[in-house]
Amino acid sequence: MSLIFPAPPTVSAPIDGSADRFPIHRIFCVGRNYEAHAKEMGAVADREAPFYFMKGSYAYCPSDATIPYAPGTANLHHEMELVAAIGKAGFRIPAETAADHVFGYACGLDMTRRDLQFAARDKQRPWDFGKNFENGAVLSAIVPATRIGHPAKARITLSVNGQTRQDSDIDQMIHPVPALVAYLSQYYHLEPGDLIYTGTPEGVGPVKAGDRIEGSIDGVGSIGLTIGPAE
């Protein structure tokens, strides 16, 4: 048997301090995981259980890239996030041992076509057009947990053209990383290579062609992105 066309290459992200790379399997994203962000979106935070949406691995974009302004939108937004990278398979994982399944952490930008997301939300439709698109999951190098541990408190910030827009702490997450991993594993067999974007604090907003985005999470790293003209 032969393939009728070449299989797509493996998508992978750099590992900080290593020549090895982290192959990306699935990208899970958590919605409304910060109370203040839920409020600024006119929504109610989900405290009983987290909710998720997904992005394909083709949405991966390395930090410090220049990307075209996303097609089909007039309201492209930034969302700065802590990302947990799964390195050990697991199913129905207890929260008490969830950290054992996390290989490391990174900074992420969940780029969002906000107008398309809101249009879908208003019609009670899935968010795919608003969230799941090429270059929509920007990621810094992954820092192994063996080096930095499992951060539960760290300042998270983002600026556009040097002006601060997001400034919070990951301890404001309603559902911390162990709870996110444990809950997700009730519905999926988590695999090495899975990424979990853990949600964004308040201060999200639009970007335009020519803008430079820079973000950081204390103890984890930094991320950058330049928005180019639309194609």
UniProtKB/TrEMBL annotation:
Keyword Metal-binding belongs to the record: yes
Name of the featured protein: Fumarylacetoacetase
InterPro entries in alphabetical order: Fumarylacetoacetase-like_C, Fumarylacetoacetase_C_sf
Organism from which the protein derives: Paramagnetospirillum marisnigri
Domain Fumarylacetoacetase-like C-terminal: 27-224
Gene Ontology molecular function: acetylpyruvate hydrolase activity; metal ion binding
Protein keywords: Metal-binding
